[in-house]
Write a structure and sequence with these properties.
mainly beta; Thaumatin; nine-stranded mixed β-sheet; 2 helices
Length: 222
């Protein structure tokens, strides 16, 4: 009986690690922060990170992240093109300014648990930055291409906005193609556009699913 329980425990542990978990944590000095989640598909956001109801559309929802509490993705099937933002919903810079975010809103974006086992992560400061976001991975992730391919562990965006050039895992202001500005959104800020010199804006991994990605809100941009 003990041997059977031991085998069962091993199997449960194996399958529990077979899916990638996204963990959101408020690591700032703020007691709580409002987190907005958008799915770039027709899927319902209810259930993700404990979200109990969708907002304006099924693919959008939000929740309050209390200080030092972890909120888990809570989905083992594919989540493609998800957007997470803090303090304000994801929006273009003109809307952000009109809604009280004078420096825009930045996002954490992810695709995990895909059937083809291709997963991606990044922080987008293309439309501005209102918060400092850090993300760390457990294992198996890379950043860059070709001769610049490197093992990836963690990164965070910066403020002022212009300081996000050449930061691994971060898309700089206006740089929709990482190293170039292609079909950019409206330009709202005076900061000079500085794109990266290598394709290091997106973190990827192939043929491997499992472990976790810790996404931490460190506070508002100042």
């Amino acid at each position: 009986m003990k041997k059977l329980l031991s085998i069962l425990f091993v199997l449960i542990s194996f399958f529990s690690q077979a899916q990638t978990d996204i963990i959101i944590k408020n690591s700032s000095n703020e007691d709580s922060v409002k987190v907005y989640v958008t799915l770039q598909s027709d899927e319902n956001v209810v259930g993700l990170f404990g979200i109990k109801k969708s907002s304006s559309a099924n693919c959008k929802g939000n929740f309050w992240a209390k200080k030092n509490v972890e909120y888990h993705l809570n989905r083992t099937t594919q989540v493609a093109g998800a957007i997470v933002s803090f303090r304000g919903d994801n929006q273009n810079c003109k809307s952000a300014i009109n809604n009280g975010f004078p420096t825009g809103v930045n996002n954490f974006e992810f695709t995990v648990n895909t059937e083809n086992k291709f997963e991606t992560l990044d922080i987008s400061c293309v439309d501005g930055v209102n918060s400092i976001i850090k993300y760390s991975v457990s294992d198996g992730w890379n950043v860059g291409l070709g001769d610049y391919l490197k093992t990836f562990k963690s990164t965070q965006n910066k403020y002022p906005l212009s300081e996000n050039c050449n930061v691994e895992g971060v898309f700089p202001y206006q740089c929709t193609d990482c190293i170039d500005v292609i079909n950019p959104p409206s330009k709202c800020f005076g900061d000079a556009v500085k794109c990266t010199s290598n394709r290091i804006c997106q973190v990827n991994r192939y043929d491997k699913i499992g472990g976790h990605v810790l996404v931490e809100y460190l506070g508002g941009a100042k």
